[in-house]
Amino acid sequence: MNNITNIHCNSSRNIQPRRKQTSFQGVTPIEKLGKDTFVGVRNTLIQETAFFREPELIEFVKQYITTTLKDKHKINIIDGACSKGYETYTIAMMLDDVSKEIKILGLDIGKEAINDAQKGIYFVKQIHGNEDTVFAYKFGLAAYNDDYLAFSPETQLSAKEKYYKKKFNEFFEAIPNYKEKRTLFEYIREKLFPGFTPHFETKAFKIKPEKAEKCQFIPGDIRKLDRIVPENSADVLLFRNALYHMTTQEAGMGLKIPLPDKIVIPVVKDIVKQIDKSIAHNGLFVIGEHKSDHTLTAGKTLYKELENRNFTPVFYNPDGSMAYIWKKK
Ligand SMILES: C[S@@+](CC[C@H](N)C(=O)[O-])C[C@H]1O[C@@H](n2cnc3c(N)ncnc32)[C@H](O)[C@@H]1O
Question: Does ligand 1 come within 6 angstroms of the Cβ of 90?
Fold first, then answer.
C-alpha cells in the first residue's frame, strides 16, 4: 500500500516523561450488557475515549470537507460508536470554523453511554504519581492525553494544544467545586497499597446550551445502521476503535482473543454493507487507530470488503500498513 498523504499520525503523546509524571487515560468506563446481547461471548462494552483523541484523523476530515466537498453546503456526520460523546463534541469543536451547515449524530450501542452523552457532563482527569504507580494504572491501556485542556497553563502548550483548548473553553464551562467520587475498589486499593495507588484529580465540565445543539445522541447499533441513517446520506461515518467488540472475546484481565473466522467474517461483511449503504458518493469512512481493528481476520475482511464496494484508502499510518480513512467512489 502506498502512503498517499503527507499527514502523519502522531504517536509522540505516548512518550511520557520519566519520574513523578502526571498522566491521563481519558475516561475508561465499562458497561455491562445482557449475556446474550452480543456476538460470541462478549457482554461488556469498553467505552474508553477522550477529547481530541487521534486528532490527525479529524484534521484530515476537516481538510477533506473544505477541499473535496467544498461545494457541499450541508455536511452530515455520523459518529457510529460515540461512547459518551467526547469524540462527537471533539468533531464539533474541530469543525467549528468551517463555514458550512454541519450536523453530527452520535450513536452507540451502550445505553448508559448515550444517557451520559445526553446529559452533557464531561470529565478531564489528571493522574499524579511516580512512574511505577502510573504504569500500574495504565498497564495494557493506550494513553490519550487531554489533561492539558483543564490543567496545563497556556505557556506549556503547543500551538495546536492552545487552539484545541480555546475551542474547549468556547464549548464547555467548568462545574465549580466538583468532587470526584471514589469507587469501593479504589478506596480499598488506597488503604491496602497506598504507595502503589495513583492519585486522580478530576475537573468536571458542562457543555454550553448553545453548543449542545450541534450534536445529537441516540442509542444505535452499527449493524442496524439502515434503521437510523437514510441511504447514501452520510458524508462522514466514523466507527473508531470499536470493531474489536464484535471480532474478539474477553479473556479476563482486559485481554482480548479473536473469535473464530466463521463468526468474524459474516459480521464484518454485514457491517461493511451497512457502511456502504449509508455513505454518500465521495463520503469518508473513518476506522481509527486501534490496531486490533486492522489486523487478523477482522482487518483483512474489512479492507477486502471495503475495496469490493469501491472504497479506496486515503489516510494511512506512517508505515502504510494500516488504512485509517477510506473514501467511497
Ligand atoms: C473504545 S470505545 C471508542 C469510543 C470512540 N469511538 C473513541 O474512539 O474514542 C468503543 C465504543 O464502541 C461502542 N460499540 C461497540 N459495538 C457497537 C455497535 N455494534 N454499535 C455501536 N456502538 C458500538 C461501545 O459501546 C463503545 O462505546
Answer: no
DSSP category for residue 117: H
Domains observed in the chain: 12-328 (3.40.50.150)
Tell whether the model's pLDDT for residue 12 goes beyond 60. Answer: no
Handedness of CA 63, 287, 255, 217 (dihedral sign): positive
Averaged pLDDT for residues 239-247:
92
For 20, the grid coordinates are 513523578
What pTM was estimated for this model as a whole?
0.89
Query: How far apart (Å, rounded) are the C-alpha atoms in residues 135 and 4?
Result: 36
What's the DSSP call for residue 259? P
Contacts of the segment 7-15: beta carbons below 8 A, 24+ positions apart? 7/56, 7/59, 7/60, 7/315, 8/56, 8/318, 9/54, 9/56, 9/57, 9/289, 9/317, 9/318, 9/324, 10/56, 13/143, 13/144, 13/145, 14/142, 14/143
Ligand 1: which atom is nearest the Cα of residue 290?
8
Instruction: Tell me: pLDDT of 186 over 70.
Output: yes
- The residue assigned the cell 474489536 is 244
Q: How many Å lie between the centroid of ligand 1 and the Cα of residue 302?
A: 17
Q: For ligand 1, atom 26, name the residue with the nearest CA.
A: 47
Which residue in this structure is represented by grid cell 469498553?
46
Our answer on whether the CB atom of 222 is closer than 6 Å to any ligand 1 atom is yes
Give distance in angstroms: CA of 145 to centre of ligand 1: 19
C-alpha grid cell for residue 55? 486528532
User: For the segment 17-68, what is each residue's pLDDT rounded down to a tens digit?
Assistant: 333 445 556 777 888 876 655 655 567 888 889 999 999 999 999 999 999 9
Phi then psi dihedrals of residue 103, to 5 deg? -110, 130
Which of 146, 141, 193, 191 is closest to 165 using CA atoms? 146
Yes or no: say if 278 and 226 are a contact pair by the CB < 8 Å rule: yes
Cα 148 to Cα 125: distance, rounded to the nearest angstrom: 10
